[in-house]
Prior knowledge:
By secondary structure, the protein is α+β, with helices and mostly antiparallel strands. It has three helices and three strands; from the N terminus they run βααββα.
Amino acid sequence: xxxxxxxxxxxxxxxxxxxxxxxxxxxxxxxxxxxxxxxxxxxxxxxxxxxxxxxxxxxxxxxxxxxxx
Length: 69
């Protein structure tokens, strides 16, 4: 069951869309690496808001972990 506290090691605490910072913590890579992966199509972000901030789908993060990214 989901809780209000985010834990990088517990997917049950993740929302459906994760921030750049949350995804960086989960995958243990820098935010710049995530930006590069997005630009190269390795792990594509969803763009939200007027600033086009990056968000990552929970299902994509779980797949990346499973695939050893």
